[in-house]
């Protein structure tokens, strides 16, 4: 469904992505692991054009896109087919939970308000926020805010949802509720690419784990194999540190 070929990105002298390839099938839940600074977030941001890659290609179904020189139309199409869940939620503080979810549907998609409201209510119900349609972000816990962020992504009905460390800004006691929601939507067949440090999510929910270090993919495989029999020395060292 999504193929990324040979993506490169540097910030000045700092080479952050040094030729990353990635293939994602419909229904895949792919978790990207790796030490801090290994380029995981940048990879996600380049796929969604939040950063411009120096080089690389995305093949999105029938669409071939040069990630360095994409037309506005191609960027628009990829953004329509993907949704992003941010580490810091990125909600509009002056809008209610419902309005945060409808915004992309009404403004981005040109959907009539009533239809957008219905979809947004369903999405908020799915993440357990039926009681919070009218709440403003300041009235929500971090876990609830992130669940609004996930509802917003789900409501867009994208081909794939990109999660950028969705629980790393949360107090530890709020992490579980967000992972639970992610697990639920994964089980429903949502295609997901998830950057996270939550090993339990990688073990229990992912069907593939990718380990990045120094801007390259060092190793990838099904979680069981990856965690029990890591092949590469760099992977073994990383797992020793985090498990
Ligand atoms: P990870 O998600 O694996 O922790 P990142 O992709 O966030 O890694 O960052 C990789 C490297 O790129 C880091 O050294 C970071 O400082 C650098 N970096 C990320 N974004 C920018 C930016 N906008 N400008 C300059 N350097 C950046």
From TrEMBL:
Compartments in which it is found: Cell membrane
GO molecular function, one term: ATP binding
Domain ABC transporter: 2-239
Classification via Gene3D superfamilies: P-loop containing nucleotide triphosphate hydrolases (3.40.50.300)
Membrane topology: Peripheral membrane protein
InterPro entries: AAA+_ATPase, ABC_ATPase_HisP-typ, ABC_transporter-like_ATP-bd, MetN_ABC_transporter-like, P-loop_NTPase
Keyword terms: ATP-binding, Cell membrane, Membrane, Nucleotide-binding, Transport
One Pfam short name: ABC_tran
Name of the protein in question: Amino acid ABC transporter ATP-binding protein
Organism: Lentibacillus salinarum
Lineage: Bacteria, Bacillati, Bacillota, Bacilli, Bacillales
